[in-house]
Design a protein that fits this description.
It is built from two helices and 14 strands. The protein is of the alpha+beta class. It is rod-shaped.
Length: 262
Amino acid sequence: MSRSAGFTLVELVIVIVLLAIVATISVQFVALSTRGAVDLGNRQQRALQGVVIAEQITREVREAFPLSVRANGACLEWRPIVAATRYLDLPKGPDFDEITISPFGRDIDGGLSAVVYGYGSGQASLYDSLNAGPVSPAINPVDAGDGVITFAGSESHRFTRRSPEKRLFLVASRVSICQSGNRLYRFNGYSHGTAQPTAATLRASGTGAVLGADVVQDSMEFRVIPPSLQRAAVVSFAFELTDPQGDETTVVSQEVQIRNVP
């Protein structure tokens, strides 16, 4: 009498167990591979975000009037240079209301301030256009071929110093970059005294725009090495970006040399 061929119950159980082990290993392998790809993508995204933020700060700071750059840890403030030329004569009495210059060669918007040689003046004076000092009141628009700068509203101004090379800069209103919470903000168009404002004061001014997000709390730090007669100013900054869906972070640091020399 012939017997039917087949599998025993023990053999079936062993096969099922082996298949379950293989399936579990396969799923874990796929999950780990996927997680690794996601983590790599997040790292690359944070690195790119850090490069973009650092490059934007670097480009703006390089256009700063070097003596105006100042930091208080989480905030950096400066006055950007818009144009430069050489003056022929500074304001003279009795009106003290115009500067004779070599033409800029292009049209200049009004509302800027003229700066003549800030060395020897307190840094706060570079944010003060109301009193005699290195910074003038707002100027009127200047046409490309004009050789004279006049002050808006018939204002008068006396510069307390002269430049050895008769260099004159036109600077815009103050700009700040600050960390507040887990974001970086850029502020401009705000009004303040001659002291450097804090992040809280700037946020209250309503003039900020988000420069970057997912920044580790209190990680931004600005440092300024002021310029001298022998070397340019140097600004260094560092901050840390975090993964909003994990606990990994990326540290970004940069050093910027400001080559403008008053």
